[in-house]
Amino acid sequence: MRRFAIVLSALLLHGCDLFPIGVCTDQLVYGIEVTVRDSMTGALLSVDPTGVLTDGSYRETMEPVGTSHLWGAPERPGTYDIEITAQGYRTWNRQGVEVEMESNGCHVETVELEARMASLAGQFE
Which of 20, 8, 40, 11 is nearest to 120 (CA)? Predict the structure, then answer.
């Protein structure tokens, strides 16, 4: 019984450091990464897109990273609807994008998407 108490105390004090299952890092992992392109040319947009993620009542504005890249859902699993807008383009939507945790439980698995946005140029001529 005493040996059990010592092992239990060690686990409580040191947790997973004694028996590492996976290697967790301090890195922040985004659950959704979207590259935004023009649907006709395939080129990255020349205007900055904005994106919004929703998961039930949760709502988040995506982080712009460089030109035409948006990241969101940092370390947050869930099922997301995505809306991306950009001046001069039709809105791009995607529903039901699932972000899951890695099998080791340390971080989310990143879902990489490509949003091909249609230009509004010539639409009203």
Answer: 40
